């Protein structure tokens, strides 16, 4: 998200930022060192959506993510702006500028007054799964683990120039949409298709792409798409989320069948307290600290992480979270210690 450097409020400079990214991609391609990936318009004109090309290694994804961040940072320095990779901004704008695109106009009309507060940014991780039925099985297996993924990656503590009291205020804002948080448990691929079509038919979602559960089957790619994450403060945080997601989708740990209300209650607590939350443990059905559930998850995923070459990255980042907190904790600490100047320094550094 593009922010005004002085107020840290969203600034409608997304189209200019995307133009700068395109120019950088052309320049670096000519130098045989392409930025890679793609950038697109997002719902609000303060936002920039970036997507990496499909990658088999974290190193490949990291190269593109760092290229995007470098190019956006250069744009911001020349535009008296900041680039903030967080679930919500610190400041509030005086008005909301929707990107001039027909689909976004329709969404804004449907959302009404919610549009004025929809300053939310997320990280979506796609994992390829061959076969429609296998994708549904993977989606079902993911459901109980989604809250602890949110707890580990919460990165939106602010709203309207002050702490919101939540580690992931983005998750709370999104709760107001017609579909959000825990996806249903599906019988099979036909059941998934039938229920998606019915939701769209009600008009509560304008199309299949606007279904906003924390995880879903992609409509455009043969992937399971995990959408629970706030936009992440650093490239390393994004890689951590991607590695956990791939391991969970490909080899999900054994879990009991949790009721949707138990998962959603855990979602709320993860959004509220991050790694200090108490959640329903998918392994036992009992309430436990998020820290112990996360430790158990990392242990259970060890073989899958190791097979993909991701174990060292996950252990390093998990250790950093245990020592220094999540992105939300780091943002709050920067504000407490240095005020708004601390947040400027934090966002500029990353």
UniProtKB/TrEMBL annotation:
It is an enzyme of class 6 (ligase). It holds the Pfam family GCS2. Keywords: ATP-binding, Ligase, Nucleotide-binding. InterPro entries: GCL_type2/YbdK_subfam (IPR050141), GCS2 (IPR006336), Gln_synth/guanido_kin_cat_dom (IPR014746), YbdK (IPR011793). Its EC number is 6.3.2.2. GO terms for biological process: modified amino acid biosynthetic process. Gene3D superfamilies: 3.30.590.20. It catalyses: L-cysteine + L-glutamate + ATP = gamma-L-glutamyl-L-cysteine + ADP + phosphate + H(+). The keyword Repressor does not apply. GO terms for molecular function: ATP binding; glutamate-cysteine ligase activity. Belongs to the glutamate--cysteine ligase type 2 family. YbdK subfamily. ATP-dependent carboxylate-amine ligase which exhibits weak glutamate--cysteine ligase activity. This is Putative glutamate--cysteine ligase 2. The lineage of its organism: Bacteria, Bacillati, Actinomycetota, Actinomycetes, Micrococcales.
């Amino acid at each position: 998200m593009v922010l005004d450097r002085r107020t840290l409020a969203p600034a409608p400079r997304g189209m200019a930022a995307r133009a700068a990214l395109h120019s950088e991609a052309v320049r670096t391609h000519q130098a045989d060192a392409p930025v890679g990936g793609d950038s697109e318009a997002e719902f609000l004109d303060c936002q920039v959506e970036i997507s990496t090309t499909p990658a088999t290694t974290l190193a490949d994804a990291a190269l593109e993510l760092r290229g995007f961040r470098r190019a956006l940072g250069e744009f911001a320095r020349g535009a008296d702006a900041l680039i903030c990779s967080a679930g919500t901004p610190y400041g509030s704008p005086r008005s909301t500028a929707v990107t001039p695109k027909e689909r976004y106009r329709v969404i804004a009309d449907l959302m009404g007054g919610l549009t004025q507060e929809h300053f939310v940014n997320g990280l979506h991780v796609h994992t390829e799964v061959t076969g429609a039925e296998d994708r549904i099985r993977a989606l079902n297996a993911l459901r109980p683990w989604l809250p602890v993924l949110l707890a580990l990656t919460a990165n939106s503590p602010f709203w309207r120039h002050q702490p919101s009291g939540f580690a992931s205020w983005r998750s709370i804002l999104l709760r107001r949409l017609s579909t959000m948080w825990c996806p249903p448990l599906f019988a099979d691929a036909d059941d998934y298709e039938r229920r998606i079509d019915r939701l769209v038919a009600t008009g509560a979602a304008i199309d299949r792409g606007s279904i906003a559960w924390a995880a879903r089957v992609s409509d455009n790619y043969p992937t399971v798409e995990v959408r629970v994450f706030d936009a992440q403060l650093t490239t390393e945080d994004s890689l951590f989320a991607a590695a956990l997601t791939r391991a969970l989708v490909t080899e999900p740990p054994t879990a009991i069948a949790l009721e949707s209300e138990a998962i959603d209650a855990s979602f709320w607590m993860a959004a509220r307290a991050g790694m200090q939350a108490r959640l329903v443990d998918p392994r036992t059905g009992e309430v436990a600290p998020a820290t112990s559930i996360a430790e158990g998850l990392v242990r259970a995923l060890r073989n899958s992480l190791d097979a993909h070459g991701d174990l060292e990255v996950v252990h390093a980042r998990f250790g950093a979270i245990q020592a220094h907190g999540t992105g939300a904790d780091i943002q709050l600490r920067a504000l407490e210690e240095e005020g708004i100047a601390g947040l400027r320094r934090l966002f500029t550094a990353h």
